């Protein structure tokens, strides 16, 4: 059902400053950056092994990520797993009583499907599920 | 320098209850559990792809993990990268001004070497470095 860790998302207050640690100091590679308007974040994608670090910088004060940063400070925000079949996974999780933030997958502009599991059901961890296009 | 994400550590208050989510609901495999006396935690190792989830349950009230759980509740605790040469990595990080919790590697009972980077230098993330025996 779950194939691997797709990414670990980290909320930061300044993307350039954060890259000085993850890229300049640790020696990881910056693959690319993009603005995700639907979530009001700038994202830097930093591959590591078979996964990625995603650095999230809120671009407004209202988004979930912005409120997280204000309340808890910078740090790990969510953990994303890649799955083969997100609809089957969500159906199963619902059947066994796991609380979902998204009961049906959200479809991103790139065709990627994703959904979040509520941290209440996952030891305080915000867990994202990804089904990649063509995967 | 950095090869991959070795594990993502999650602090939990009850190991059996946490396995009901990560193993029973998500369908991940429980590889094994062990008690790590030096850190006063019971650990459940849950492989996923090329990495692992490590569920940490404090076994006293004094350890760093126990204080984290009391202060912040369950959730992601640290992120561990596997490196080829931990001494070279720590030397480099120190040279470029990264604040280290362990300036020299700690050697575990299994010969594994590890060290922590201070969250102040890593966007609030407690980062662990591992050099595996024979790696």
Automatic annotation (TrEMBL), chains A, B:
<comment type="similarity">
    <text>Belongs to the methylmalonyl-CoA epimerase family.</text>
</comment>
<dbReference type="Pfam" id="PF13669">
    <property type="entry name" value="Glyoxalase_4"/>
</dbReference>
<feature type="domain" description="VOC">
    <location>
        <begin position="4"/>
        <end position="132"/>
    </location>
</feature>
<dbReference type="GO" id="GO:0046491">
    <property type="term" value="P:L-methylmalonyl-CoA metabolic process"/>
</dbReference>
<dbReference type="InterPro" id="IPR051785">
    <property type="entry name" value="MMCE/EMCE_epimerase"/>
</dbReference>
<protein>
    <submittedName>
        <fullName>Methylmalonyl-CoA epimerase</fullName>
        <ecNumber>5.1.99.1</ecNumber>
    </submittedName>
</protein>
<dbReference type="InterPro" id="IPR017515">
    <property type="entry name" value="MeMalonyl-CoA_epimerase"/>
</dbReference>
<dbReference type="GO" id="GO:0046872">
    <property type="term" value="F:metal ion binding"/>
</dbReference>
<dbReference type="InterPro" id="IPR029068">
    <property type="entry name" value="Glyas_Bleomycin-R_OHBP_Dase"/>
</dbReference>
<dbReference type="InterPro" id="IPR037523">
    <property type="entry name" value="VOC_core"/>
</dbReference>
<keyword id="KW-0413">Isomerase</keyword>
<keyword id="KW-0479">Metal-binding</keyword>
<dbReference type="GO" id="GO:0004493">
    <property type="term" value="F:methylmalonyl-CoA epimerase activity"/>
</dbReference>
